[in-house]
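This section describes the prediction task in plain terms. A model, or a person checking by hand, is given the sequence of a single protein chain and must write out its three-dimensional structure as a string of tokens. No templates, partner chains or ligands are provided. The sample shown here is typical of the held-out split.
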Amino acid sequence: MRNERRDLAWYYGEEIGGRLWRALARQLANRKTQLGVDEDALALEDVQVWAELGAPEVFSVLDLALSAQDAALQVRARVDLTSASFPVQVEVVARAEDAKEMQDYAAYFSEKGLVRLSAGLVPELGEDDLDALAERLLAAYYPEALEKPRRVDAHEMAERMGLAIKCHRIAAKQDIYGEIFFAEAEPQLFYDNRKAYSKNFVKSKTMVVDPTATYMGEVGTYDGTIVHECLHWALHGQAMALRRAQQPDSQESAICCRVDGGVANPDDAVLLALENQANTLVPHVQMPLAQFRQRANALLKGHNQSENWSRSRCIVMPSVIDDLADFFGVSRQAAKLRLIEAGYVDAAGAYVYIDGRYLPPHGWTPGALKENETFSIPAEEAARLLMEDADFARAAQGYLYVDGHFVLDDPRYVGRDHSGEWHLTEAAYLNMERYCLKFTLSVQDNSTVPHTRYAQMCLLSQSKGIPLVAEYAYPDYNTLSPSEQTELRKRTEAIMGIINELPNNFTEAWKLILKRFNISQAELARRTNYSEASIGDTINQNRHASLEKVITMCLAINLPPEISLPLLQKGGYHLKPNNQAHFLYYLVLTSKYKDSLDKNKKFLSEHNAPLE
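The expected answer:
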């Protein structure tokens, strides 16, 4: 701990540090007799740094716990970092018979609106601190947002903080959406007209906002970027001052904010911590909790819905999300995430973006999904799991892949619309936990992106444009009721009856299948658009047909996977686990086989695995 003392003393320098330690020495000397402690016997046990945030004047309060033999001393010293003379005031030196008062520090300072800082002077914020801190910041810079639900004027907030805004393209790749400068600098900014970078003089207390880029793709907005940089200025000036003091030659004058939630140097843990805090706090400032809930409940009431969860409430959630986004001036994705944070868990089933389209809203009982779980999975990930995860392949038997979900193959849960396309029924959409398989979802390991909770939430929202790569996995859950397990068993027994009759010979197996499914070669030719002679040559193996042709024939008859996959093997056809197209063939054969051939061909073409 002595090293920490030296680090802090060194940071405050000869002027601040010297004054602080001299003030402590005087206090100890003056009260030496009263305390009964020899100054030379004291050893610094811990240094706690607290910051008073949410006010134009920012102070640091240093708490030092000193120990000597069986005595415990507490020292509170306030250092005014906004004053050029750096005055130091030692407020209290008191003897404590035990450490209770020291243990109560956190509660005391929280009540006073102070935030604990790390040794790097980075605020230490837990999830429970975010809304309270957002309210303190708003009380200082935009108090009207706490009076009633309203949009925070980001430009006005920046002006009240004394910050200038420069709107300019920052990077050619549009991977940086904002920068906040704590000292004068000449950053390189990109010019569209010249397609080149050029130096620009920027004063301290200036933010550069790129209007062509936003946080997490479509999660952030232009106003959100301004609020983000305001938060950096309010919360992180001390940490940046410390970094400049420790690295005077680095000329680090700004925090560079990347679209994916990272910073320019992915190995810089301190800057990543600062960026994560600003990213996480922005929605709390733009949508303060009490006012956000007030507005959300009013909108739900307008849709004849209670503020309390109901099974059908998920149906109106897209409209509520859009209204909140428009009212508070945030993105659809940010409004959805804030609803989830505020306890409206059914918002998670709205605006789920899979394979280039939004899925219909769907819901489940609160608690049915953990924070890192989902019922929705993209086709390519579904195909990969079917090929690579034997447990999942077994669990998916009896399920169909429809609308981005694996749903129980039962007419109560899947049906056809007027055009013959498969879709989930209302019973399935409102009871996902009963009839659909669920998956875990995580951020793919990538050292350039911090694995923060808010980044994870952005990914879990499965919203459009999130610049993170997801990894899906299948947890071994048994979601079927006893009656549903019985129905699945009957289906399996019926299919197994056909499988047990299948000859090992490819030609004879095809003839039995056509007979059992009451389909002639002429009808199969009509469905596939192959000639009847070509169908005959394939079945009789007069010439070797392509894998794609045989799969087309299986899909034209809607063969269940328990029959189509062994049939392929009898003909010497194999799906390779390292082939992306074969992943997708496996998906349609196992979980989309009830779809029409045309729909499956279209699906495969859209995923770059055509059957032609």
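For orientation: The longest strand covers residues 43-52.
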